Amino acid sequence: MIMRLMADRVNNLGPSVFAEINALARQHQAVNLGQGAPDFDAPPEVIQSAVEALRSGQTAWYAPSIGTPALRLAVAEHARGHYSQLVDPETDVLVVAGASLGVFYAILGLVNPGDEVIVFEPFFDTYVPNIEMAGAVPRYVTLHPPRWAFDPDELAGAFNSRTRAILVNTPHNPTGKVFSQEELALIAELCQRWDAIAIVDEVYEHLLYDGATHVRLATLPGMAERTVTLSSAGKTFGVTGFKIGWCIAPSTLLEGIRRVHEFSMFATAHPLQEAVATALAFPQSFYDDLRAFYGLRRDILLRIMHQAGLEVLLPDQLGAFYLVVDFSRVFSGDDLAFARHLVTAYGVACIPLTPFYSPDHRTEGQKLVRFTFCKREDTLRVAEERLSRLQARG
Ligand SMILES: Cc1ncc(COP(=O)(O)O)c(C=O)c1O
Fold it and tell me: Would you say the CB of residue 170 lies under 6 angstroms from ligand 1?
């Protein structure tokens, strides 16, 4: 008899494309514009706060399961200050180990096996495995290039009596799309019509360009009681390694999510929670500087892409720190072949887009790759120098 090695729920999960590209990038000493992790340090106040918390004599204990009082209060204050959203830090906030775990918790805690969850594709690569591991069924709605709009009729047609949730990510990875007020209003109307909940991943909420505005779906009429908002410190404060995130939801919805957390991870790292509480209290000038900082890098990457002959597919409002490009003018193979070719021949890494699509729609991503600009200026300049040879070679 052959011993079973894997549970069915993970058997079909392919190796992550990030792992392959990162390994290849290391092997070829490539400039890695693949994974969305900064190559610069967090603000010194955040590090200092973590160090002080480590030295505070409180590290022997678990943090409270729902999160430290300081961080829950900071999350509530941040929601009030930025979105005029009233959040009770005692009942409506749960600290989790990153927004992506928060999405998984929300699905496990609120969605039954057999329920449908609507997800926009291309999608962040953990969403569909999360839905499927929970025994639920993904229903796809496509964001169409070049501007990454969705068809309102297609969205309306995806809702039905089995719909339990819609998963929204705004600003969006990989496309950079910031969902407009009108798009979110339609989502809100459909959620209410079909009595569905919204699970919204807002990790890029502060990374916005050219006057783009981020609207928090939970603040639209009728949505407070049916929305779970996830965000984290990773992207905003450049501390992806902390893996500290939070979940904001009315206590009625949060209870299911809280149970998943209490009976699995239980609590996240206390010193890092204290550091994130410090970061969340930064004044508005921090966020203004952040936009200018990333705006400069966005401009550099745009220039690099144009010079290299890569067609940038820009949404109406741009956020996050990625650009998706169509490479078909310079390369005839598929996206994975192009990503491998770019690392081995030019020493620059990017991420192929087909893994962001469901198996039936993979061809949509076949000529597309994603580059990130969450890098130091000198890193981007090296990429510029290397990619300047791309178009000439064709
Ligand atoms: C859309 C999206 N959600 C969540 C995450 C991960 O967030 P965290 O590290 O807080 O889990 C990422 C990281 O790339 C992301 O792009």
Answer: no
- How many angstroms does the Cα of residue 100 sit away from the middle of ligand 1? 5
Domain extent listing, the chain: 13-42+285-393, 44-281
- Ligand 1 pocket residue status of 240, Cβ below 6 Å: yes
C-alpha 225 – ligand 1 centre gap (Å): 24
CB of 243 within 6 A of ligand 1: the answer is: yes
Distance CA 45, CA 28 (A): 35
- pLDDT tens digits for 96-144? 999 999 999 999 999 999 999 999 999 999 999 999 999 999 999 999 9
pLDDT at 392 over 70: no
44-281 has the same fold as 13-42+285-393: no
The class that CATH gives domain 13-42+285-393 is alpha beta
Give the number of other Cβ atoms within 10 Å of residue 210's Cβ: 11
Which CATH number does 44-281 carry? Answer: 3.40.640.10
Residue 199 in contact with ligand 1 by CB distance below 6 A: no
pTM for the complete prediction?
0.97
With a 6 Å cutoff on the Cβ, whether 245 touches ligand 1 is yes
Phi, psi of 373 (to 5 degrees): -115, 25
- Which helix (H) or strand (E) segment holds residue 45: the answer is helix 44-54
Cα 162 from chain centroid?
26
Q: Which atom of ligand 1 is nearest to the CA of 172?
A: 1
